[in-house]
Specification:
The structure holds 3 protein chains of 3 kinds. Helices cover 65% and strands 0% of the residues of chain A. Chain A is flat and about 105 Å long. Chain B is α+β, with helices and mostly antiparallel strands. Chain B has a domain of 257 residues: Dipeptide-binding Protein, domain 3, CATH 3.10.105.10. In chain B, the strands form 8 sheets. In chain B, strands 1-12-11-10 form a 4-stranded mixed β-sheet. Chain B has a 4-stranded antiparallel β-sheet with strand order 4-5-9-8, covered by helices on one side. Chain B has a 3-stranded antiparallel β-sheet with strand order 13-22-14. Chain B starts with a helix and ends with a helix. Chain C is mostly helical. Chain C has a domain of 179 residues: Orthogonal Bundle (MetI-like fold), CATH 1.10.3720. The radius of gyration of chain C is 25 Å and the shape is flat. The chains are: A mainly alpha, B alpha+beta, C mainly alpha. Chains in contact: A-B, A-C, B-C. At the A-C interface, helix 5, helix 6, helix 7, helix 9 and helix 10 of A face helix 1, helix 5, helix 6, helix 7 and helix 12 of C.
Chain lengths: 322, 617, 339
């Protein structure tokens, strides 16, 4: 704070700089207005993070490419075996070259198309399972956590279903329905929604007796509205994170199932069985490309979803909006 | 800072390793190689009770712990073991064995328990034939012994009526249902092993559940047994033939990932041998140092073949009736027979020299012989066994003929259902290769192969045994030294491919021609040459009429091993090949060239030895 | 700091039990849950039992099935008790259970008591599981705190990188990678050997890598959420130092949702990690369930399901208790809430 006196006085100000304000009745009636839109702000904050934005674009491009790839010219079929025209023997384990962009596997199939086909299959499985998990998991979790009468019953159902080992269900389903994409999706759907439900239930238990909920109950707000307007928005950030990770986790579960022998058969390539195939030859430098390519694709997908999920979760917290 | 520590650690460790190397350089290579064997395995044993198990894994362990009446030497010649000599009655029904005196049963600590006597063999057989003991090899025993099946089923309750008796402490007598010339070869099977009756009664249900509830009279005892962890066998000091046991200690470490890790463990010198998985074999062959440490593994006597199903019972959408009509046409079968490129299919599992595992006959080469002439070289079988079935021109020829003959009766393309087991990545790959290869050769207008994945749970019941296939890879292993064993899958009682339902082969007595040929051969008991020739003719008929496509043998692959393979006891069935008695460890692994030379020398010596043995009889 | 925090927690627990609920109410609630648990266990075992009976018969025989004839097969199945009607078999199981007998294995290791088989393996899985859990908790939570504190700065980015890497690369791949390359560089033994103490390290460390990333990620998320809340802004305005805010307010509240899973993590260590145990030859219970299901050894499967189900139920209960103890606003019982 300076102590010098300012030598300014009102008389020195130029009156021409000022305009007399008029009184407008209609404008006086206007109440507070804000053009704040929750989702718009969320996206704005999200896009501010350059890395996340870039990865989002990458994922969109990746998904579009996997869908379009079979229709592009010069693409090979993922299951066709390529033979040496002279000897008739398969073109085994060719390193990547002009003809086979990612090389061939041990029976002469083109890895490039196998990886894209596999990504397509894995993403399909992941999305179906993720969406199902989200819908059923959140619904059941909310009801479970909020409605006390249901808490007892659903806890018991949860205990029963959770404690039946998934492996038995998988082995039985594989035996009865035979290995296929449908069997895998079906089996993963009926076993995976439990953890999402429990997670949501835990979150809801934490906030269900907070004052604002008590207030809503006093006002007579119906349960559905309390859940959708009071509880869920509070949990948006954590739920978003779970959903974003659902896809990589589904792919990870698929890798595990393939490891214990319950996954898709090799003639339907998927990231899970491509990685398992490649894992055995990790120690052979000349064949390592068979592991690296699918692992890289899987890593890119997981990293993207993780970063997108985290950033979106951060962005969807209203306190982070400007 | 951390980097410096890591660097120092590495330097210190490598120096100690190098120092160790220098000290242990052997002066006299031959005698200083430590005769201790170690390896990793991924299939754990379920039981040590050799009288009930039917698992190859468990046979291999039992072979080293308990001896049989006879054994085989490294050329596959039958030699006395617990029996010193034997004789057959003139009607071929009674076999008498004189036992070796002074052989002792010892426990896991090496302490003597009792002497091995004839009663032990009777007690063993009693246990096997007692239904409540759940022996999975009982049927092998009761297929030959008098009244054994009746005892098993409960129709006879007095065991003394069954055809095994201890005439005196050292004389054992077997009485057979019918003269069985190959009976001697069956005696090396686990169901004929002895057991000490008193010990068995003492341990009761716990017999064979761990190493302390077992007695040993073989070359080794089981010193440590920790399932899913490790087991250690040590040479039996009280063994009657202990001068022939060179390897003193066998250490097995369990690891589920043994297939992936064992090549690395071998390179680091921690184990004596490691099978190289098909996926890594390229890597090893391309590296000059590693290449010198691998050699091919011999093929086994397990035979693989592709069967045509005459009793299709699969889903209507695959048109089973259509398949049935097509498969009964000889030209149709022959076109498929000649169209299968076996080398291409084999390359998926055996990329180096696939030809050595291929077989053109159901009965493998070197299985049995008549006075030095191999079975597969008898009569009309000789030409078949030396010609490859793959012939593209012939295949297309037969295709044209078949399409003409079947016009109007069969809709083309014929749907061919080919199931496979998803737990085997080899088989999955092979199924894809075969589908594309045969469809490309014969054209999609002729056949449409549909490969169906099935999980390993209940695989055979869901596919082959239920008739749920058109064309499928099947396998079979021998039980005794006679060509009859390889005809079992094709009898009318078996559930392989129902050849007896083929429409064109019925003869006057209502049975199929193949079946009549086989029955005639089975009836020929006295003249072994004639018997073998009749079987050979039957097999030739089977292949010629394209009922099956013989494909390959089991085994094969490559191994990096310091064991000398030509010192091991050898036999196509029974447990002799798994014995470690007589085996030696070399100072370094054998390479392919040495192996091939050794194999040729061994084959020559073997046929000599077999001739000598045949002339002695 | 962590020690002070933990002792603070213990104080809370004691206060919780004394003030909030009173022994009587706690006992009543526990009894109710206990009775419900028994019913649950009964249902679970029966369902698993039925599922296992749906598996094909040939699975009980192993390799020799091809050569067995019908008489033999029937004899073996009858002897194993598999031909009795299902309620008879279930009855046998419960009768044995009341005598403390978990049954005898039928295909995995025939005639050996199930209790003996499981006993010999559980210690190994527990040891490695607990070691990995302790490492992961300490490392993960510390990392999460560090990341939340330096949000969007260096440590946060580094931590994020680690979490992303561990989540992206499949566990099966990096476990094998570590096993082969780390043992090569440091000349450690590849396989676990109980007489060699050095071989205990790498499996425990590898097992801890994944959970560390998990704990770090969730801790960071919960803490960031807390840090955004208004009462923190007030605390800062009041002039409280960052350290005090972290310790007294943020950590405590952020830990609440994680507390739910803590008892489960501890108890589930006895399940074992199937990957690690396969790779390092650790004779634990990791692959036991999968193996016995595939081999159709019904007694072992039922015993394992019984054990794991009990563990699951107990840990859900303990988790709820723990969570309620941290946050006084949470009320588990019917009273206190209106619906």
């Amino acid at each position: 704070m300076s102590n010098t006196k300012l030598n300014k006085s009102i008389d020195d100000i130029d009156p021409l700089l000022f305009d007399f304000a008029s009184y407008d009745e209609s404008r006086a009636e206007r109440a507070g207005y804000s053009n704040y839109s929750y989702w718009q702000s969320t996206f704005q904050v999200f896009l501010k993070n350059k890395v996340a934005a870039a990865l989002l674009i990458l994922i969109i491009v990746l998904v579009t490419y996997t869908v379009l790839q079979p229709y592009l010219p010069n693409q090979k079929s993922p299951t066709k075996i390529y033979n040496n025209p002279v000897t008739g023997i398969q073109l085994r384990n060719h390193a990547p070259d002009k003809e086979f962009l990612f090389g061939t596997n041990s029976i002469g199939q083109d890895l490039w198309s196998r990886i894209w086909s596999g990504t397509r299959t894995s993403l399909e499985i992941g999305m179906l399972v993720g969406i199902w998990q989200g819908l059923i998991g959140i619904t059941v979790g909310c009801l479970w956590g909020y409605v006390r009468k249901l808490d007892g019953i659903i806890t018991e159902i949860y205990n029963v279903l959770d404690n039946i080992p998934n492996t038995i269900i998988m082995v039985l389903l594989a035996y009865i329905l035979r290995p296929s994409i449908f069997t895998l999706v079906f089996a993963m759907c009926i076993t995976n929604w439990l953890s999402m439900a429990r997670f949501v239930r835990n979150q809801i238990i934490i906030i269900r007796d907070r004052e604002y909920n008590l207030a809503s109950r006093c006002l007579g707000t119906p349960i559905g509205r309390i859940i959708t307007k009071n509880l869920l928005p509070y949990l948006v950030s954590v739920i978003m994170l779970q959903l974003a990770l659902a896809i990589p986790m589904a792919i990870g579960a698929e890798v595990f199932l393939t490891y214990i022998g319950l996954g898709l058969p090799l003639n339907t390539p998927s990231l899970g069985n491509l990685i398992n195939e490649g894992r055995v030859i990790m120690m052979s430098p000349s064949l390592r490309y068979q592991l690296i390519f699918p692992a890289v694709v899987l890593s890119v997908i997981t990293i993207s979803f993780y970063v997108i999920g985290n950033t979106f979760a951060d962005a969807s917290d209203p306190r982070n909006h400007v | 800072m951390k980097k410096v520590i890591a660097l120092m650690l590495t330097v210190a460790l490598s120096m100690s390793v190098l120092a160790g190397c220098k000290d242990s350089a052997p002066k006299d290579k031959k005698t200083d190689v430590k005769q201790e064997y170690s390896t990793v395995y991924s299939e754990e044993l379920t039981t040590l009770n050799y009288l009930v198990t039917a698992s190859e894994n468990e046979f291999a362990v039992a072979a080293n712990l308990v001896d049989c009446l006879v054994e085989h030497d490294k050329y596959g010649v039958v030699k006395p073991s617990l029996a010193t000599d034997w004789s057959v009655s003139s009607d071929g029904l009674v076999w008498t064995f004189n036992l070796r005196k002074g052989v002792k049963w010892v426990d896991a600590a090496g302490k003597e328990y009792a002497e091995v006597q004839a009663q032990d063999f009777v007690d063993g057989m009693n246990y096997v034939l007692d239904k409540k003991n759940n022996s999975e090899t009982a049927n092998l025993a009761y297929s030959v012994l008098k009244d054994a099946e009746k005892f098993y089923k409960g129709e006879v309750t007095d065991f003394t009526q069954v055809g095994v008796k201890a005439k005196s402490p050292y004389v054992l007598e077997y009485t057979l249902k019918a003269p069985t010339p190959y009976f001697l070869s069956m005696l090396t099977y686990v169901c004929f092993m002895p057991v000490n009756g008193k010990f068995l009664a003492e341990t009761g249900d716990k017999f064979g559940t761990d190493n302390k509830t077992l007695l040993y009279n073989g070359a080794y005892l089981l010193q440590t047994y920790e399932p899913q962890n490790s087991r250690v066998l040590v040479a039996n000091d009280k063994y009657w033939d202990k001068t022939n046991v060179f390897i003193k200690k066998l250490t097995y470490t369990y690891n589920k990932e043994a297939a992936t890790l064992s090549p690395e463990l071998f390179t680091r010198g921690e184990i004596t041998d490691a099978t190289i998985p098909t996926a890594s074999i390229d890597e090893w062959m391309n590296d000059p140092t590693k290449k010198e440490t691998v050699r091919p593994i011999a093929t086994t006597f397990y035979t693989f073949f592709y069967a045509f199903n005459f009793n299709p019972k699969f889903d209507v959408k695959y048109q089973p009736e259509n398949w049935k009509a097509a498969v009964n046409n000889l030209n149709f079968r022959k076109s498929l027979f000649n169209a299968l490129d076996k080398t291409a299919a084999m390359t998926t599992a055996e990329p180096y020299e696939p030809a050595r595992r291929l077989s053109n006959t159901i009965t493998p080469k070197n299985f049995i012989d008549i006075k030095g002439v191999d079975y597969t070289a008898l009569g009309s079988l000789a030409k078949t066994s030396s010609t490859s079935s793959f012939d593209a021109t012939k295949a297309k020829d037969f295709k044209t003929k078949a399409m003409e003959e079947l016009k109007g009766k069969v809709t083309f393309p014929v749907k061919v259902v080919m199931p496979y087991n998803t737990s085997s990545s080899d088989w999955t790959n092979r199924a894809q290769v075969i589908e594309q290869q045969m469809e490309t050769l014969l054209g999609k207008d002729f056949i449409d192969i549909i490969i169906l994945p099935y999980p390993p749970t209940g695989f055979l019941n869901a596919t082959r045994r239920a008739g749920n296939y058109s064309f499928m890879e099947c396998n079979w292993g021998p039980d005794y030294a006679d060509p009859q064993t390889y005809t079992d899958p094709f009898t009318s009682e078996s559930n392989y491919s129902w050849i007896s339902l083929a429409t064109d082969y019925k003869e006057a007595n209502g049975k199929g021609k193949y079946e009549n040929m086989v029955n005639a051969a089975k009836a020929e008991i006295l003249d072994t040459s004639k018997r073998y020739k009749l079987f050979a003719d039957a097999e030739q008929f089977l292949i010629d009429q394209a009922f099956v496509i013989p494909y390959s043998l089991g085994g094969g692959g490559f191994i990096a091993s310091k064991l000398d393979p030509f010192t091991s006891p050898y036999s196509p069935f029974g447990v002799s090949s798994s014995k470690f008695k007589g085996q030696k460890i070399m100072d370094k692994a054998m390479n392919t060239a040495t192996y091939k030379k050794g194999f040729d020398a061994w084959q020559k010596a073997r046929s000599e030895a077999l001739k000598v043995a045949a002339n002695k009889k | 700091m962590l020690i002070a925090y933990i002792s603070g927690l213990c104080d809370d627990l004691i206060v919780f039990y004394k003030d909030k609920w009173g022994w009587q109410q706690l006992l009543k609630y526990s009894l109710k849950r206990l009775v419900k648990s028994m019913v649950t266990l009964f249902i679970v075992i029966s369902v698993v039992f039925l599922f296992m009976r749906l598996m094909p018969e040939e699975g009980y025989f192993g390799q020799g099935y091809e050569k067995l004839d019908l008489v033999q097969r029937e004899a073996i199945l009858t002897n194993l008790g598999l031909r009795d009607p299902w309620f008879v078999q279930l009855g046998h199981f419960y009768k044995d259970l009341f005598h403390g007998d978990l049954g005898t294995s039928i295909t995995y290791r025939p005639k050996v008591a199930v209790a003996e088989i499981i006993e010999s393996k559980i210690f190994y899985s527990l040891y490695f599981g607990l070691a990995a859990l302790v490492i992961a908790l300490i490392a993960g939570i510390s990392m999460g705190i560090l990341m939340a504190r330096s949000k969007n700065k260096f440590w946060d980015k580094l931590g994020n990188g680690y979490i992303v890497f561990i989540s992206a690369v499949p566990a099966a791949v990096y476990y094998l990678f570590l096993q082969l390359y780390v043992t090569d560089i440091f000349n450690l033994p590849i396989l676990f050997n109980k007489s060699n103490p050095v071989s205990f390290i790498l499996p425990a460390l590898s097992m801890a890598l994944g959970p560390t990333a998990g704990y770090a990620m969730w801790m960071r998320r919960y803490m960031v959420d807390e840090l955004n809340k208004d009462y923190i802004k007030l605390a800062r305005a009041k002039g409280l130092s960052n350290k005090v805010i972290m310790r007294k307010h943020v950590l405590r509240n952020a830990f609440v949702p994680m507390a739910q899973y803590l008892p489960a993590s501890i108890l589930y260590t006895l399940v074992g990690s199937i990957y690690i145990e396969s790779l390092y030859s650790i004779p634990g219970t990791g692959g036991l369930l999968v193996d016995t299901i595939q081999r159709q050894d019904n007694p072992i499967v039922q015993a394992l399901v019984l054990i794991y189900a009990s563990v699951g139920i107990i840990s859900l209960f303990l988790g709820d208790m723990l969570m309620a103890s941290f946050d006084p606003r949470i009320n588990l019982d019917k009273q206190g809430g209106i619906r």
